[in-house]
Recover the amino acids of this structure.
């Protein structure tokens, strides 16, 4: 009886120890980069100078 309990404890411990790294390998972090390059786009910004309206293009990278 003791050997059965001991064998089941060893089996459960080995299943958990092999299952934890496999599960941790599927966790990925995403920082908004695609293959190491940031995602950039061009944004038009309106600004005023001496009462006149001007537009300029600004590159925004995230």
């Amino acid at each position: 009886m003791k050997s059965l309990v001991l064998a089941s404890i060893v089996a459960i411990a080995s299943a958990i120890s092999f299952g934890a790294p496999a599960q941790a390998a599927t966790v990925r972090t995403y920082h908004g980069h695609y293959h190491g390059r940031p995602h950039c786009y061009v944004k038009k910004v309106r600004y005023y100078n001496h009462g006149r309206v001007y537009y300029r293009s600004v590159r925004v990278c995230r």
